[in-house]
Amino acid sequence: MATKPVKLLGFWDSPYVNRVQFALNLKSIDHEFIEENILSKSELLLRSNPVQKKIPVLIHGDEPICESLNIVQYIDEVWTDGPSILPSHPRDRAMSRFWAAYIDEKWLPLLWEVYEAKEEDSRTTLLEKVREGLVLLEAAFVKCSKGKAFFGGDSIGYLDIALGGCLGWLKGIEKLASVKLLDETKTPALLGWAETFCSNEAAKNVVPEPEKLNKCLKEFQAQAAAATK
Amino acid sequence: MAEEVKLFRTWSSPYALRIVWALKLKGIEYETIFEDLTNKSPSLLQYNPTHGKVPVLVRDGKPVCESLVILEYVDETWKHNPLLPQDPYEKSMARFWANFGDDKLMKSIWQLFIAHEKDQDVAAVAALENLKIVEEQLKGKKFFHGETIGYLDLAFGWIANLVSILEEIMSLKLVDGERFPHLSSWIQHFIDAPVIRDCWPPRDKMIIKFQVMRENYLAAATPK
Question: Are residues A26 and A105 in the same domain?
Answer without folding.
Answer: no
